[in-house]
Amino acid sequence: MDKKNALRAGALAAGTTLMMLLMSSPALALTRDDGDDPGNGLSVVQTLGLYVLTPLVLFAVIAGLVMVLDKSKIRVTKPGAKAKAKA
User: What is the model's pLDDT at position 73?
Assistant: First the structure.
């Protein structure tokens, strides 16, 4: 039964994606609106910095702050971890 549900979910996701692609009209992007004032485009380096490096740096800073400011002294280990460490 799981295979049937997975197939149904995949078909639904593919159909939804296809419909969204067909319904969106990229031709509307060519018409300019009143008051439209687009700025200069971004270079490849600026784009990578904005959409790749900035999120990675923010993730690292937040993860670092969580680890440094963690006040809990009790560390929970799995029951089998001690037995494996002694072996």
Answer: 76
